[in-house]
Amino acid sequence: MAAVRLTSGHFRQGCCWVIRSRCQPTCASASSSSVLNTGSRSFSTVVGRPASISASLSSQSSLSSSAYVRPALPNALAHSSLVHGRNPFTRNMSAARRKIMVKNPIVELDGDEMTRIIWQDIKDKVCCRYLEVDLKYYDLGLEYRDQTDDQVTVDAAEAIKKYGVGVKCATITPDEARVEEFKLKKSNVAISQRNHQKHPCAGGLLTHCRGGTVFREPIVIPRIPKLVPGWKKPIIIGRHAFGDQYRATDRLIPGPGTLELVYTPAGGEPERIQVYDFKGPGIAQTQYNLDESIRGFAHASFKLASLKSLPMYMSTKNTILKKYDGRFKDIFQEIYDKEYKADFEAKGIWYEHRLIDDMVAQMIKSEGGYVIAMKNYDGDVQSDIVAQGFGSLGLMTSTLTTPAGDAFESEAAHGTVTRHYREHQKGRETSTNPIASIFAWTRGLVRRGQLDETPEVVNFAEQLERACVEVVDVEGIMTKDLALACGKKDRESWVTTKEYLAAVERRLQKNLGEETKL
């Protein structure tokens, strides 16, 4: 087998580093921790941390409780069999089962804290153990984003554009406390302020780079009680993932003065609109959106509703924001009438605009079974309400789709689970729900399989989703959040994350075995 020394076998690619197995063989021993032995199969791993890669493979196994210690990819490699001459894609696999070939690469975006740890477990234990897949890795952990001035996020977005499919772990969106905790660069603060957002979140920057619509859909498990018991069918939230408050410029007004909005047409004279005459201190904000982006949002939403044969609503506050929200309403209606009305009517579904307050009230009273297209902020808030209403924030998928369908990114809709990570740092057991993170992988695999026309990849992803649901619904094995949702508070009613993942893999093997018999 050809061994590749990490210190000499890697090369720069943008903000990432590529390690390839078909480099010149070295004379190093395969037992050395600085040697990567990949066997005869060629694959590439993109590492987001170039500095001292081989040195960092030594030992960072213990987590300190006094400081935030984020497990980097080299550390994860140190704890895998990759450095001991075995390919992790084949370990512990039954000789009778052939691995499923994923034809084209998937872009993997790593994250932070507890979800980063769970992400690695999911990849190793319930994905790559069954799949032959080329993962293009980008480290979107906060420290490395800061180190690269967010260039790694831009590069990740370009990689998704190139390969078509990405899967993303949850990442930290830093507030002021996080800025101090991580000692983020002051220069980055200035850069971000000039770009109208201080330390933008990785997901938001990805969305800004790629455009598109974020669709959030609940994972329905019958055993889990719903906080909104009338909801019988899924409610899909389509969130316009561009502009508005998320690209706004805001500032403190120090004292008396006049606030004006100035627009200067290309080659024309400035136009001034007086906004407010301040008599004392206050605050101000300006925001924007683009017709092109709104049109893309409309097309993506109508296409999804048509694909799922579900009625669709669009909600704004156009009675107050007559021009701003009115523009959304008018563009949606124009596109629907010209391009989608006939298709919707043929399928027995419909499109309707509703005021946001009326839509929210109707949503609570309904049984579900529709798509709601919402502006950026509305979709951000309402998707969490829908997730909790169906049982848990850990039971929500999130996918980003571009209007042209040339890029797709899936992720969990929740955060990095900091509280559980602090417990993990102290060496205590944790019971973090990994279902949404698993579905981030499966939805990406489904999309990859659809694009590549490889039904076996799609089927594997669907069987993995089925296993996740059945472990909870049929076997009653669940993490603490779901047990509490079921009204169970005793320790015996829930399992740790690792125990849940083990149950999912067991169930997955059973499901795949049943298919083989058929």
Automatic annotation (TrEMBL):
It holds the Pfam family Iso_dh. It catalyses: D-threo-isocitrate + NADP(+) = 2-oxoglutarate + CO2 + NADPH. It comes from the Eukaryota. InterPro entries: IsoCit/isopropylmalate_DH_CS (IPR019818), Isocitrate_DH_NADP (IPR004790), IsoPropMal-DH-like_dom (IPR024084). One of its GO terms (cellular component) is mitochondrion. Keywords: Magnesium, Manganese, Metal-binding, NADP, Oxidoreductase, Tricarboxylic acid cycle. GO terms for biological process: isocitrate metabolic process; NADP+ metabolic process; tricarboxylic acid cycle. The keyword Membrane does not apply. Its EC number is 1.1.1.42. GO terms for molecular function: isocitrate dehydrogenase (NADP+) activity; magnesium ion binding; NAD binding. NCBIfam families: nadp_idh_euk, PRK08299.1. Belongs to the isocitrate and isopropylmalate dehydrogenases family. This is isocitrate dehydrogenase (NADP(+)). It comes from Trichophyton interdigitale (strain MR816).
